[in-house]
Amino acid sequence: MMADSKAGRIPIAAVKALIVDAMIKSGVPAADAGKIAELMVEADLTGADAHGVFRLPQYVNRLKLGSTNAKPNIKVNRTAPATALVDGDNGMGHLVVARTAETAIELARECGVAWVGCFMSGHAGAAGVYAALPLKADMIGIYSAVANANHMPLAGGAEPLLGTNPLAIAIPAGEEPPLVLDIATSIVSYGTIKNHRLQNRPLQPDWMVDPKTGAAITDPHKSAEALLLPMAGYKGAGLALMLGLLGGTLNGALFGRDCVDFNLEPGKVTNTGQFVLALDPSKFQKIEHFKAEVDRHARSLRDSQPLPGGDVVRLPGDARAKRRADRLANGLALPVELLVQLDKLAGELAIKPLRER
């Protein structure tokens, strides 16, 4: 069934079912398909609209081409009490990074902190989804990755040698929403650029530049030849570089000139690298006290004086929590252009389109 026509939204269960069916038709085992669907839809629920079901046609294409392994044998190599390296066997990034996070949580229970990297992974969607996984264990989560294409230059550079390598940090709270920071090291994520291109919406003038002239690019259909600018200038470029070395080079995954652009070369294996750090606050103080203190600070900071003309002071995670509650209850408002793509995909795979679910 479709959502209330007044709301124009699609129930979460329908979107999950479409993803599961598409994955199974693409050779993914049912249990893995369910896990992938949960993680993809979590991106949509929390507002990372370019990293959830939006990516389904691209993922299915890679599975069809064999550049992503539908049935990976993911292996965990525990290298020390608090570290491990996960071999993703070129599986769907959602499965590989979820295993990475699960391993980090398990080791952190023993050691208080754990750093787990992975290689032979793939695009896994929104960074915040994986930083937030340790929250379920009352732990702090940190996640980063080598993005699956280079769209960004080094400081002062004119070549796309860096990905939009994201950083996400999640800190548990008590009664307040957890604090979750999820940022690309570019001004906006490349998924946002792709979403604008799909909907034929102009880009903001400070997002991308022409590498030959340095002029701003606002036409979304010229974005493939443009450079995505780092956030905060050289600071964003430097952060992307460091995170790329930690997520890629440290794990034996690809980085820099070695990276494969999964947009332009869908038939190639990307050997993506990511890492998850899990930290147990109970090793520092009683968890109830820590979470109560996070609540106290969150309320104090949120109640601080906004700028004239501003509405409220925002904390990372506030809007995410509100969106998640709203979308869980009322479904997703997907753009018409994406619905057309998903209907086309459903036809190609001979599965029920969203409107029939």
Describe, in short, the structure shown.
With about 350 residues, the protein is an alpha+beta fold. The protein is about 35% helix and about 15% strand.
The SS-based structural class is alpha+beta
Shape: globular
Question: CATH superfamily of the largest domain, please?
Answer: Malate/L-lactate/L-sulpholactate dehydrogenase, NADPH binding domain
Strand order of the largest sheet: 1-2-3-9-4-5-6
Tally of domains:
3
Distance between the termini: 5 Å
Q: Strand fraction band?
A: 5-15%
Level-2 CATH architecture of the largest domain: 2-Layer Sandwich
Give Rg in angstroms.
20 Å
Query: Helicity level, as a percent range?
Result: 25-40%
Give me the CATH fold name of the largest domain. Ribosomal Protein S8, Chain: A, domain 1
Strand and helix order:
HHHEEHEHEEEHEEHEHHH
Low-pLDDT ranges? 1-7
- The CATH class of the largest domain is identified as Alpha Beta
Average pLDDT score: 95
Show the helix and strand layout.
Blueprint: H1 12-25, H2 30-45, H3 56-65, E1 75-80, E2 83-87, H4 93-111, E3 113-121, H5 127-131, E4 140-145, E5 167-171, E6 179-183, H6 190-199, E7 208-209, E8 227-228, H7 234-247, E9 272-279, H8 287-302, H9 318-330, H10 336-349
Parallel strand pairs: 2-3
Antiparallel strand pairs: 1-2, 3-9, 4-5, 4-9, 5-6, 7-8
Helix pairs in contact: 1-2
